[in-house]
Amino acid sequence: MSLLDIENLTVRFGATTVLDAVNLTVDAGERLGLIAASGSGKSLTALAVLGLLPAGARVEGRIRFDGRDLLTLGDRDLSALRGNRIAMIFQEPLSALNPLMRVGAQIAEPLRLHRGLSRGQARTAAIALAGRVGLPDPEHLVRAYPHQLSGGQRQRVGIAMAVSTGPALLLADEPTTALDVTVQSEILALLDDLVTEQGTALLFITHDLAVLAQVARRVLVLGAGRILEQGDLEQILRAPGHEYTRTLLELARAASFRRSAEVGR
């Protein structure tokens, strides 16, 4: 049995279907990439797993995690999974973090909530996690507020929060899009190290095949809410079978050229 098994997931808002009979599986420890252009519904897939779809969404199908259908669970059971067995890294860390809470307290919060650590124990663990994700001077930095950090540092805080409890499944929704080229590469390398270290399954969501190639082994291509193509990433890069995938590949090549030009300046 797969760790995550999504079967015929359909999401509608009124008369508009944004996800149409999506099927995907993620095995324990596997890295799966979900790629699509903006507006194709890829982020809604992750939000559906977490039970965080916007108001008005009508959902059909099944989302099984570790054998349990998440769509049948109540708020209490879902809350026990979020940030614990399933965690998410969001695209824009500044909006994902609480602007009124020190970053150390935010890293410590999942540990206090799901692991029952005391305030002191959680703070010690938060400092260690801040160091593990490469934040400078962790003992000082955990006392900062999100607006006092750079974009890359805020994303490292988000990653520290996500991995703090050792989740079985990590959802990464465009986690490097808002970052410059150099920081993006550092964050991808960090994410690669952490999921390997913890044996975490990864669902990496992006619009960029070049980015996806650094973290995933298998890929699903989503277009207009439907899975258009799937398979081994290297094979799809060599011989994409769908015109939509070929377009994404051309965009990725152009983006890679721009990155190389930026790094060379």
UniProtKB/TrEMBL annotation:
<keyword id="KW-0547">Nucleotide-binding</keyword>
<dbReference type="InterPro" id="IPR017871">
    <property type="entry name" value="ABC_transporter-like_CS"/>
</dbReference>
<dbReference type="GO" id="GO:0016887">
    <property type="term" value="F:ATP hydrolysis activity"/>
</dbReference>
<dbReference type="Pfam" id="PF00005">
    <property type="entry name" value="ABC_tran"/>
</dbReference>
<dbReference type="InterPro" id="IPR003593">
    <property type="entry name" value="AAA+_ATPase"/>
</dbReference>
<comment type="similarity">
    <text>Belongs to the ABC transporter superfamily.</text>
</comment>
<dbReference type="InterPro" id="IPR003439">
    <property type="entry name" value="ABC_transporter-like_ATP-bd"/>
</dbReference>
<dbReference type="GO" id="GO:0005886">
    <property type="term" value="C:plasma membrane"/>
</dbReference>
<feature type="domain" description="ABC transporter">
    <location>
        <begin position="4"/>
        <end position="249"/>
    </location>
</feature>
<dbReference type="GO" id="GO:0005524">
    <property type="term" value="F:ATP binding"/>
</dbReference>
<dbReference type="InterPro" id="IPR050388">
    <property type="entry name" value="ABC_Ni/Peptide_Import"/>
</dbReference>
<keyword id="KW-0813">Transport</keyword>
<keyword id="KW-1003">Cell membrane</keyword>
<keyword id="KW-0067">ATP-binding</keyword>
<protein>
    <submittedName>
        <fullName>ABC transporter ATP-binding protein</fullName>
    </submittedName>
</protein>
<keyword id="KW-0472">Membrane</keyword>
<dbReference type="InterPro" id="IPR027417">
    <property type="entry name" value="P-loop_NTPase"/>
</dbReference>
